[in-house]
Protein backbone atom coordinates (compact mmCIF):
# COMPACT_ATOMS: atom_id res chain seq x y z
CA UNK A 1 0.00 0.00 0.00
CA UNK A 2 2.88 2.38 0.64
CA UNK A 3 3.97 2.01 -2.98
CA UNK A 4 0.49 2.98 -4.18
CA UNK A 5 0.50 6.05 -1.94
CA UNK A 6 3.94 7.04 -3.19
CA UNK A 7 2.78 6.62 -6.78
CA UNK A 8 -0.24 8.88 -6.16
CA UNK A 9 2.02 11.47 -4.51
CA UNK A 10 4.46 11.47 -7.42
CA UNK A 11 1.67 11.75 -10.00
CA UNK A 12 0.09 14.62 -8.07
CA UNK A 13 3.43 16.45 -7.85
CA UNK A 14 3.84 15.96 -11.61
CA UNK A 15 0.33 17.33 -12.27
CA UNK A 16 0.79 20.34 -9.98
CA UNK A 17 4.15 21.15 -11.57
CA UNK A 18 2.56 21.05 -15.03
CA UNK A 19 -0.28 23.27 -13.85
CA UNK A 20 2.14 25.82 -12.40
CA UNK A 21 4.28 26.05 -15.54
CA UNK A 22 1.29 26.19 -17.89
CA UNK A 23 0.15 29.37 -19.55
CA UNK A 24 -3.13 29.43 -17.65
CA UNK A 25 -4.25 32.37 -15.56
CA UNK A 26 -3.33 32.54 -11.88
CA UNK A 27 -6.87 31.76 -10.64
CA UNK A 28 -7.07 28.74 -12.95
CA UNK A 29 -3.71 27.50 -11.69
CA UNK A 30 -4.85 27.95 -8.10
CA UNK A 31 -8.10 26.05 -8.68
CA UNK A 32 -6.41 23.16 -10.49
CA UNK A 33 -3.74 22.89 -7.79
CA UNK A 34 -6.31 23.02 -5.01
CA UNK A 35 -8.41 20.34 -6.71
CA UNK A 36 -5.41 18.06 -7.08
CA UNK A 37 -4.36 18.59 -3.45
CA UNK A 38 -7.84 18.15 -1.93
CA UNK A 39 -8.83 15.15 -4.06
CA UNK A 40 -5.52 13.53 -5.03
CA UNK A 41 -6.74 10.61 -7.14
CA UNK A 42 -9.89 12.16 -8.60
CA UNK A 43 -8.18 15.53 -9.05
CA UNK A 44 -5.34 13.92 -10.99
CA UNK A 45 -7.72 11.98 -13.23
CA UNK A 46 -9.81 15.08 -13.96
CA UNK A 47 -6.64 17.07 -14.68
CA UNK A 48 -5.41 14.28 -16.95
CA UNK A 49 -8.65 14.33 -18.96
CA UNK A 50 -9.57 18.03 -18.92
CA UNK A 51 -6.26 19.71 -18.14
CA UNK A 52 -3.94 21.55 -20.50
CA UNK A 53 -3.32 18.50 -22.66
CA UNK A 54 -6.93 17.33 -22.59
CA UNK A 55 -9.33 17.53 -25.47
CA UNK A 56 -9.96 21.23 -24.85
CA UNK A 57 -13.71 20.85 -24.31
CA UNK A 58 -15.50 21.67 -21.09
CA UNK A 59 -16.52 18.80 -18.83
CA UNK A 60 -19.93 19.22 -17.23
TrEMBL record:
The residues covered by the Cardiolipin synthase N-terminal domain are 10-52
**Regions crossing the membrane:** 31-50
Mainly localized where? membrane
What subcellular compartments does it reside in? Cell membrane
Alphabetical keyword list: Cell membrane, Membrane, Transmembrane, Transmembrane helix
InterPro entries referenced in this protein's UniProt entry, alphabetically: CLS_N
In the bilayer, the protein is annotated as: Multi-pass membrane protein
Pfam families attached to this UniProt entry: PLDc_N
Its domain of life reads Bacteria
State the name under which the record lists this protein: PLD nuclease N-terminal domain-containing protein
Amino acid sequence: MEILGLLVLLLDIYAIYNVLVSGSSLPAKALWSLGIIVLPVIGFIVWLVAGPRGSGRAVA
